[in-house]
Amino acid sequence: MRCDVLESGPLPPIRQTEVEDEPLNEPHPESDEVVLILGGYDGSARLSAFDSYSPSYDITRSLSPMTFVRSYASVAKLDGELYIMGGTHGNVWYDTVESYNPISDTWVTRPSLNQKKGSLAGASLNGKIYAIGGGNRDGCFSEVEMLDLNIGKWIFTRSMQYERFAPAVAEINNTLCVVGGYDGRNYLKSVERFDPREYSGTGLRSMSTRRGCHSLAVLNEKLYALGGYDGAKMVSTVEVFDPRTGSWMPGEQMNVSQMDYFPEIIKCAANRQQCAASTYYIHMKLSLRGKEIHNMGITRRPQQHPGKLRYTLRIQLGLSQKKIQITVGMKSDKVKH
Length: 337
What we know:
Residues 1-29 are annotated as: Disordered. The protein is an all-beta fold. The chain has strands at 33-38, 50-54, 59-63, 74-78, 81-85, 88-89, 92-93, 97-101, 106-110, 121-125, 128-132, 135-136, 139-140, 144-148, 153-157, 168-172, 175-179, 191-194, 202-204, 215-219, 222-226, 238-242, 247-250, 265-269, 285-287, 292-294, 303-305, 308-317, 320-329.
């Protein structure tokens, strides 16, 4: 048996290279897109929680929570930051605004709105944020407020033609299109175009269906109005607006009627530097796998029945609230979102 003995003395420098063990299937969220989830209801209390969810990898990460617990607020993106404005908590209506910096994972207080309101629509255009419509216990609003960071305050700009509570808005072709809503009497199917270069708003062709609490998205330079509530029932239809023809056409109907009335959810690049509020709101998040339901409108925790979950939703319909009993059937505990 042989032993090699090293002589004592200084050794030549050794260059070390560290190699991290990394599973081949480890998720890479920096290359993925995530959904940002703000607020909600956990079955016992409303939340100020703020999370990101990766649909590709089914991973949820906690981010810095909001300063306020708020429901029925609106969101918009400007200069890489996410702004949330207005809303309500209990009997209190908010005029407060805060923005989230994804690089530092912090919230910053911003200038307050001129009106306390919820169920408003929010969007950014040409370096400014617009808070559109909404309402509070006193009624529905047609006013439009604009945040100009250069002067550090919200100013009233041209009002809409109609009062609109729970409308939807999207930016298309450098203009804002405001669709549907509730005017205090009826749900609307009318559409208005807001162009800051013009003195007055322009009415566009109306949808075929009245909608409030719905979603509005842009795809391939067309507007998609999805779901909502028409004053009597939840809506499962989809309508598509083509600005080139100025007309609406039926889209593929959704399998489930959906309403836009729970915590704000927006789509965001996972690197947290370029958020895009293209999804605006999707307001039901069920985790059937863990038997937990995260939804602002659930009034009590679900009770499990053989193969089913039954729970109650408290929803906002115009300025009133109603309850809906919903039963969800499950084939197994491995049902995904």
